[in-house]
Amino acid sequence: MTLPFEVGVVVRDLELMERFYLDAFGCRAEHRSRVPESIGGPAGLGGELTVAWLRVPSGGCVKLIRPRSAPVSAFAAPWSVGRPGLSYLTFHFDDMDPVVAALPAAGARPLSDPVVIRAHGRRISFWADPEGNTVELVDARGGCPEPGHSN
């Protein structure tokens, strides 16, 4: 591999979701562009796209993808247990407490009670972003992840 990992998230409201990831996670907007149907179609994303590239402070990239020719429908049914596909994005922090405190005002909702739990010697917290995508926060103060484990 030659560059940090990128992940794409299909969104309904590009501006809302871009503001959320910029404000809540400190991502930096790199650029936004139109992706032609010749690329969006074969990618299975319905044709022409608008994509916002957001640089994660640790070096990765979140691409927010808004299909232009095939609008994203209302919220999909909740993910079922054991289904294949992307489950959540994980962000690692030295101290996640300021982020956890800011997430409700940014439009996120916690997915557990208590909001921060301990697992495998780490502090973790699961949230739904404004469009319902699951985001995991992992706090380094709770210990180091074992190789091959995200939480």
Notable characteristics:
5-stranded mixed sheet; elongated; 9 strands; alpha+beta; 151 residues
Can you describe this structure?
The protein has 151 residues and is an alpha+beta fold. The chain is built from three helices and nine strands. The protein has helices at residues 14-25, 37-40, 97-102, and strands spanning 6-10, 28-35, 49-55, 61-67, 89-93, 109-110, 117-119, 122-128, 134-139. The strands form two sheets. Strands 5, 6, 7, 8 and 9 form a five-stranded mixed beta sheet that branches. A four-stranded mixed beta sheet has the order 1-4-3-2. A hairpin with a 5-residue loop joins strand 3 (49-55) and strand 4 (61-67). The longest helix has 12 residues, at 14-25. The radius of gyration is 16 Å and the shape is elongated. The two termini are 24 Å apart. 21% of the residues are buried. Residues 143-148 have low confidence and may be disordered.
